[in-house]
């Protein structure tokens, strides 16, 4: 499956649809080239690995007491470093990110995740290495 976004529920966006078409075309091109016997050399790629889900700050009754800070909103896949603003309480207090490494949040303030108690997902940037790939004929 391919999920391309962000895109609000029930909204069709031309830019997101275009990105989805491009990634599906690249995938189909790869399958065709592989099936034709093309050899792909080893390569390294940067990816984002999920670390953990982060909930909104809540009071003892389980009610949300802070929202995503404006500097974090719409910053999916951008670095969040120790001390950077993370949440903003309803009283205007900034709650900074406190962590021992830079993370890359995604799914920030997605409406579909409120009920799942998820403000965003912390990811880490890692590198994956793929070996040479070619069709093996049996």
Explain what the structure shows.
InterPro entries: AspA/AstE_fam, Aste_AspA_hybrid_dom. Residues 44-125 form the AstE/AspA barrel-sandwich hybrid domain. This is ACY2 Aspartoacylase. It holds the Pfam family AstE_AspA_hybrid. One of its GO terms (molecular function) is hydrolase activity, acting on carbon-nitrogen (but not peptide) bonds, in linear amides. With 138 residues, the chain is of the alpha+beta class. It has 2 domains: 1-40; 41-130, N-terminal domain of TfIIb, CATH 2.20.25. It is elongated and about 65 Å long. The longest helix is centred in the N-terminal third of the chain and has 22 residues, at 14-35. Helix content is 16%, strand content 25%. It has one helix at residues 14-35, and strands at 43-54, 66-68, 85-89, 94-96, 120-130. The strands form 2 sheets. A 3-stranded antiparallel sheet has the order 2-3-4, with no helix packed on it. The protein has a two-stranded antiparallel ribbon with strand order 1-5. The protein contains 1 helix and 5 strands. β3 and β4 (94-96) form a beta hairpin.
